[in-house]
Amino acid sequence: MKGIVCTNCGYIALDGITPEICPACWAKKSFQEKPDAIVEPSTATDKLEANKKHIPQINIEKKCGLIPDGCIDVNIKIGATTHPMLTEHYIMHLDCYLDKKFIARVVLTSVNLNPAAGFHLKVDKGRFAVIEKCNIHGAWLSEADL
What we know:
This protein is mostly beta strands.
């Protein structure tokens, strides 16, 4: 899937608008359009394992366990089969969007972290999206309605 990508940090503009300043790393005018910015899940038999380890799984809890009033928990796990977190192969970061607008980046390091994150949103509707960036296999997208 094509996308507008920050050449400095890898942020992808889901809304298709090239920003003047990258919302993830604050680099100025560092964007280019890439035809393969986001990996398209494959139905080919030899690619199904890659799908299982890379497509983000989004779990939405309408009642927050931490902030009880006006909060939705959104938990993300990378892969139906948990993605490895090794020095040579790991998830670099998760970029999160609400209605195609960037809201947060979680930077992950290899070895000591699991490929997962949680957010406490103060909205009750919209379309949540996450792009995970694997250091070897690129960026993968998943979306869910709140």
